[in-house]
Amino acid sequence: MAFWTQLGLLLWKNFTYRRRQTFQLLIEVAWPLFIFFILISVRLSYPPYEQHECHFPNKAMPSAGTLPWIQGIICNANNPCFRYPTPGESPGIVGNFNASIVSRLFSDARRLLLYSQQDTSIKDVQKVLGKLRKLGNSSGL
Prior knowledge:
141 residues; 5 helices; transmembrane helix
């Protein structure tokens, strides 16, 4: 049998079967049409608007290190959309968070921790207090 003959017989058989079950036929035809009209009404209710291209700030993966990963989560929590490419889109750049609050917090903490190991100001304070005591004792206070 030829392809068109088989297709014609199959369509005739399907049509005969569907004609005997009218309610099922109506549901099978009306349901896709109903969904299609819902989509059309939503599209007409909310017409598309033109928006500029969107560049999102980069977010480091955990494999880049804990600090860049946490900065990516905290600094981009609101996920802003920029009109122009962000600095982090360049290849080889892990994060563009050098001026972020988290980065400054960690750099300040690091500087304080490193400074406290080399700090001699406590010894200087002790010297000053000793000299003040001597000065107080000599003046009779």
